[in-house]
Design a protein that fits this description.
Distance between the termini of chain B: 28 Å
Structural class of chain A: alpha+beta
Strand content of chain A: 15-25%
Order of helices and strands of chain B: HHEHEHHHEHHHHHH
Helix content of chain B: 25-40%
Mean pLDDT of chain A: 92
Strand order of the largest sheet of chain A: 8-7-6-11
Radius of gyration of chain B: 19 Å
Oligomer: heterodimer
Radius of gyration of chain A: 21 Å
Shape of chain A: globular
Largest sheet of chain B: 3 strands, parallel
Largest sheet of chain A: 4 strands, mixed
Number of helices of chain B: 12
Chain lengths: 433, 251
């Protein structure tokens, strides 16, 4: 008789959105491992059709409450590409600053409030308050700094309002930026401590080689643009995304699964970004990474936490550089609807905290959306998470069930999946409920 | 429920108040933040997102039974918000987007529509906004603690705009601002940033959408399609905006 064992998590906690884990082990072999998503789809690509070029970024921001900024910037850049519209250097820098700020708050949230409890024997950051209140406070402080910086530039931290097609409708004052600069400077030390802390926790020893994809740039750490590159030699411009990456339908999940054409699943996110862009890290981030012995290329998915911590410091330092370059701000503002619409197709890729995000739109001559195509970081990672779970379950299925379950959850949380994002589109064909 | 988690994120944006808050309330169910979640009953339930599947509907009904106060948390829960635009997309349009259309529209799994909470259960408090400003969230929590009615603003954005001494974007610049029909709470954020109000707090009480639609048509140069697009953005399902939007819009 065969022996069957199941690792199941019905509603995985401390990630954004509604997902589950199902792993089936028969006779010491993993028969099936999957990260299923039961968050309902929101059909953005359907209802964007018929909407106007100047509201796309406002609507797509609502795909996700954690990473509204990269969705906005990606939509703005894609629409501007379709309209063949160039934005000013100042606008580009403000957008970079806004996205670094979003990464900062998202990374602080994941590291201190969602992931840390796994390594400190706690069920949540709330229960951590009793024993590790300094860590909770540090996480909240860094998260607030990211949010306040986003708010200063975009007018609002969640679903910002002043970034529009062509530029910004309002600009932060010099005093606001200088105050934030002071806070960022003070946070450098907290950033360094973050790297040290997440290098010191006891991470499960698990390695699985897979293709890693990120934007790359030679002159700076990529955030809003770059060349689409991978550890297996991918090297293309954003317009060629669809030639390289396609999607498969998984019958057990409401999110699609991405693969590289001719190869297979891949990883996006902090680890991929860092592995491919180590040389353009900010000075302190690079020094901190070297100090903890982070050497690219790392294929251990749990170490995404370390990469996220290094990136957190990198975000703070790059924000400081950008603020210095931006001050004094030129009084360049645009009103919404300043742009003359025309027909065209445009796409863009930006780095969201969880990895590359792709938007593509076709507009008619009145600027009305005819077609929309959006692929989010968690959709990119979904198949890779399954494969990691499968390999990892092979390694740990002998452990007591509760421990094995927690370890699998911890692995999924290392990816920091953002499930709302992943199901903006889908085809549903569920085999279990 | 069906949403973007932005409202939960706005709650977590109470960074300065969270630790004090935890001394006064016990958070018993919050899957995005906690691994151990309790079954209830609850004193107050903040429900984010709208209803789009039978699974969510069952969960909502259970929560209603278990909770003394049920708060529709944010626009998706109150009005359906931006995802509710889907309700006007003809099947032929969405069929083009998805290859396996028959599977999506299996009624067993999806209602094929976005539905606000109050269509199914009694909602005690509507906390509007996309997302509701964190101070409003705090107001609701504090009111629940001392058992009084929360002060949530249902007067128009225009009042907050006047208090900020902004120049009116609608009357002086002829720009199609939704402020006159939209509930306050944001502190007239967008008009203060030289941007027209898009209506993200939903309609105010006694909103005169008909009059605003006429102004948009005659003074701002908007087409009827443009007007319907504006009215069907954050709260097209509400009675205040529904009828005006229905007058002309076609894909």
């Amino acid at each position: 008789m065969s022996i069957e064992k199941n690792i199941e998590v019905g509603y995985i906690s401390r990630v954004e959105g509604q997902g589950e884990i199902k792993i089936k082990i028969v006779d010491n072999a993993v028969e099936e491992a999957r990260f299923g998503i039961f968050e309902p789809p929101k059909f953005f690509e359907a209802f964007l059709i018929g909407r106007k070029y100047n509201e796309v970024h406002e609507l797509t921001s609502r795909i996700c409450g954690i990473c509204p900024v990269p969705h906005q910037i990606c939509a703005l850049r894609a629409i501007e590409n379709a309209l063949k519209l160039e934005v000013s250097e100042q606008t580009r820098k403000l957008r970079m600053l806004m996205n670094f700020a979003n990464h900062l708050q998202s990374h602080a949230l994941n590291l201190y409030l969602l992931a840390a409890p796994d390594y400190l024997n706690h069920e949540s950051a709330i229960s951590m308050v009793e024993t590790h209140s300094h860590l909770v406070k540090k996480g909240l402080m860094l998260k607030k700094l990211g949010n306040d910086l986003t708010e200063a530039i975009g007018g609002k931290a969640i679903h910002p309002v002043s970034a529009v097609v062509g530029g910004f409708t309002d600009l932060p004052s010099k005093t606001t930026l200088e105050n934030l600069k002071k806070r960022l400077k003070n946070a450098l030390k907290d950033g360094e401590e973050t790297v040290e802390f997440f290098a010191s926790v006891n991470m499960p020893d698990f390695e699985r080689k897979c293709e890693q994809i990120a934007l790359t740039r030679k002159d700076m750490y990529p955030i809003n643009d770059g060349v689409l590159s991978s550890t297996e030699g991918l090297n293309v411009n954003e317009q060629d995304y669809r030639k390289c990456i396609k999607e498969l339908q998984a019958d057990y999940s409401w999110a699609k699964h991405s693969i590289v054409v001719g190869r297979g699943s891949f990883m996006v996110g902090p680890l991929s970004r860092l592995n491919l862009n180590f040389n353009v890290l900010s000075d302190k981030a690079k020094a901190a990474a070297e100090k903890i012995g982070f050497k690219p290329i790392i294929y251990q998915p749990f170490k995404a936490l370390m990469a996220r911590a290094i990136e957190l410091l990198n975000c703070i330092e790059y924000s400081l550089i950008l603020i210095d370059e931006l001050i004094p701000l030129k009084n360049e503002v645009v009103a919404e609807g300043d742009v003359k619409p025309k027909a065209g197709v445009g796409c863009a890729i930006v780095e969201a905290p969880r990895g590359i995000l792709y938007h593509c739109y076709e507009l008619d001559d009145k600027g009305v959306v005819k077609k929309a195509d959006i692929v989010t970081p968690t959709a990119h990672n979904a198949k890779n998470i399954d494969e990691d779970l499968k390999a990892y379950a092979m390694q740990i299925h002998g452990l007591p069930l509760e421990e094995a379950t927690l370890k699998c959850e911890t692995l999924v949380r290392a990816y920091d999946p953002c499930i709302s994002c992943s199901v903006h589109i889908t085809r549903l064909k569920r085999s279990f409920f | 429920m069906t949403g973007c988690a932005g409202c939960q994120m706005e709650f977590l944006r109470l960074e300065d108040e969270l630790l004090d808050l935890l001394k006064n309330v016990e958070i018993s169910y919050f899957v995005m933040a906690k691994r151990v979640n309790l079954e209830g009953p609850y004193d107050a339930a903040f429900i984010e997102g709208s209803i789009s599947t039978p699974r969510e509907l069952n969960e909502l009904r259970e929560l209603r039974e278990k909770s003394k106060i049920l708060i529709a948390f944010g626009d998706c829960a109150c009005t359906g918000c931006i995802p509710s635009i889907l309700n006007w997309v003809p099947p032929a349009v969405s069929a083009k987007v998805y290859e396996d259309f028959s599977a999506i529209h299996s009624k067993k799994e999806s209602f094929q529509r976005i539905i606000p909470l109050k269509e199914f259960v009694k909602v005690d408090i509507e906390l509007r906004g996309c997302p509701p400003h964190k101070n409003l969230i705090l107001e609701v929590v504090k009111s629940a603690l001392i058992q009084r009615k929360p002060f949530l603003r249902i007067h128009p954005v225009c009042i907050e705009c006047k208090l900020k001494e902004n120049v009116c974007l609608l009357t002086f610049e002829g720009r199609p601002c939704m402020g006159p029909v939209t509930a306050a709470g944001c502190g007239a954020l967008c008009p203060s940033l030289n941007r027209i109000c898009e209506g993200c707090y939903g309609p105010m009480s006694d909103a005169n959408a008909k009059s605003l639609a006429e102004t948009f048509l005659n003074k701002c140069g908007l087409s009827k399609d443009d007007i319907a697009r504006k009215f069907r953005k954050y709260s097209g399902l509400t009675s205040a905006l529904f009828e005006e939007a229905n007058k002309s819009y076609e894909y």
